[in-house]
What we know:
Layout: H1 2-20, E1 34-35, E2 42-44, E3 47-49, E4 77-82, E5 96-102, E6 107-112, E7 118-124, E8 127-132, E9 144-149, E10 154-157, E11 162-167, E12 173-179, E13 187-188, H2 189-194, H3 202-209, H4 213-221
Antiparallel strand pairs: 1-3, 2-3, 4-5, 5-12, 6-11, 6-13, 7-10, 7-12, 8-9, 8-11
Helix pairs in contact: 3-4
Amino acid sequence: MAFKSIVLTIAIMAVLSSISHAFDPSPLQDFCVAVDDAKSAVFVNGKFCKDPKDVTADDFFKSDLNIPGNTSNQLGSAVTAVNVNNLPGLNTLGISLARIDYASYGLNPPHTHPRGTEFLVVLEGTLYVGFVLSNPGPNMKNKLFTKILHAGDVFVFPIGLIHFQFNVGKTKAVAFAGLSSQNPGVITIANAVFGSDPPINDDVLAKAFQVDKKVVDYLQSQFWWDNN
Ligand SMILES: *[C@@H]1O[C@H](CO)[C@@H](O)[C@H](O)[C@H]1NC(C)=O
């Protein structure tokens, strides 16, 4: 009886630990180059796999990340993402990256990646970065961690947490980010809350943000630029 319950406990723990580690599943083969044609493919992890006979080096290749993104927008930032959607060889491998350009005082606004932890490497410029912890409990505040980063500095944004980067310098800034998912996703907080289509009922947002409905209506009438 005792033995059985130990076996059961171990089995349950094994299942739970595999679930808790399953952001992207571990690859089950050398690669699974994503392809849109379902007929010539095997379904794995949201994308089909290209027939390995047809795979070439170009399936694992992307160029032009030396070209700055266009930061002439209201945020003054541009994210150039490299993920499974434009580099098919990443399929099932659990990583992706982004180049982020910032104009002077440009902002990569508060956002989260629902499926990936991010680490950021600053190549040029000075960034004020931060992330906010999830709700700690009744009557406690969400803790904010911030740091000023310079060229060569690295910072980590844990999976799912709201984070931002702000160029506090008078010159442009450039950073690269690595992400622990082939398709980490982005939820830009302001865009999702005030720029959804159709709009969220303004009674909901007025109560949630503890402001007058006019403030909500004003915010909902703005154009929410997506820098991704
Ligand atoms: C950058 O974007 C702005 C605004 O959309 C546009 O006017 C400008 O031509 C773009 N610059 C380049 C180099 O593409």
